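Batch manifest, entry 17 of 40.
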Amino acid sequence: MSSELGTRIKAQRKALGMTQGELAASAGVSRKFISELESGKDSASLGLTLKVLHELGFEEPALRKVPDRGEEISGIFRRSLAAKDYEYALRLVGEYAAESLQEGRPLLRQRPAIDDAQYLVTLAALTRWVASKTDSITPAWARKTAASAEPVFLSEKIYPVGDRMKQLIRSETPKELREMNVWMRERSLATA
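Output type: structure tokens
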């Protein structure tokens, strides 16, 4: 049983792109504990094991995977962008940020399945911002996403944005977004 659980924990950690050290820091345990847990060591503390399982998205009672809200969010973005419904997709950006802040961690733990490069870099920047605001681990996909070569103002997909407005937006953009060359006012994102 413990070796099967260890295998499941390791597989989920890798699927989320986390190192043992990152999982340990996120769950508040040592890296050695994660290593022993993944190798199936029988003497692992139940309380600490449950913390790790929770961090990986497993429900404690049945040890079954909790439905991934990030997958659902990714699907909503994919459908909205395929329909070129940029107004709705822009609203979803704020909802993603607000819901993630409320949850206390970025909900997009895996790279969203979208083709729009501007939205992808925006979601990576927002994921970094949420992780910073909630003092949680930034998922690997967001850490690995490169900054945009061109400035990203998502609202320009809907209507023109004048230079004075761009200047205002730039002055109110959080650091994590600026670093990715994504420009959105923090007040447009979320207040949770």
